[in-house]
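User: Can you model how thiamin phosphate sits in this protein?
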Amino acid sequence: MADDRPGEFELIRTYFAPLAKDPGSLGLTDDAAVLSPRPGYDLVLTKDVLASGVHFFAHDAPEAIAAKALRVNLSDLAAKGARPRGYLLGLALPSDWTANWLGRFCSGLTADQSAYNVQLLGGDTIRSGSGLQISITAIGEAEAGKTVRRSGANAGDLVFVSGTIGDAAAGLKARLDHSFCGNASLDGAEERHILDRYLLPRPRTALSGLLTRYATAAMDVSDGLFADCSHMARASGVGFEIEMSSVPISSALQRMKETVPDVFAQCLNGGDDYEILASVPSAVASEFAEKAAESGCPVTAIGVVTSSAGKVKLIENGRPMKLESGSGFRHF
Ligand code: TPS
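Assistant: Here's the modeled complex, given as structure tokens:
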């Protein structure tokens, strides 16, 4: 069979060079990109590696796979209070890749580049020994010294989360079990909502400036809400007390709560949410929430920071609930 797929250099010229308009990318013609941070700004760097079967399914739409790979990185930048500037792309293609697949993957990147105002700065493409793998390094900038860490939460701060929690984990369950939506009595719109939340995270870039202004600590929720609360509590040397009934959920999750309560509980800590978890001093908490709502990314107070180091206490109907140990997503 004739192989009409482009070779490595033609592939860069045809597919990737049109994505690299930032002069620092040198048109993808050199060994490296060159980036000057603006005076008074820090560069903020983050990388996520995604693999088929681990973060997405091999037969998912190439546009959506591209968008997810970029967006999970933009979510990390937002959580640190940084604005995105560009990204590096490492792509390991399975041996049966097609020009059509790559074209669609690149149109997914093109759409998100204009939606989030970023450009491809450089990268590398190889043939994978196994399935598709994508590694993106996103580069952002934040006013010097103003990035938000996981480690700054203080006792008395309020704990906030953006958007709604659990939809993506429910979407993953629906992908794995075709009777899932029927069993949970979800209607068509609710089903589309959870499937969409699984495949297409919405990085909360609009919150980055508010986090640098108001938050004492922040991170994005990717491993599971309570697992990530534990990560932030430990990093800050404080405890969290979370009121379960305050955790914001969509109407799809509300229905799951009524129809399949055990599965609902698992979804709350299932991960893939890409929402922002932040601690904010109580004196400025309502101002933060008002400004977040104005920015189009509403936030909800779900609890308080306590002085019991590393402990996350979940409260339901006034009673403490046990947090399963080892809960949340782990690769190893
Ligand atoms: C096919 N999942 C994978 S990685 C991760 C989660 C919740 C945590 C965040 O990733 N199976 C498939 N797709 C998925 N998204 C999952 C399982 C769930 P990382 O720790 O790499 O940043």
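A couple of observations from the model: The mean pLDDT is 95. Residues 48, 53-57, 172, 222-223, 271-272, 329 surround thiamin phosphate (CB under 6 Å).
User: Helpful, thanks.
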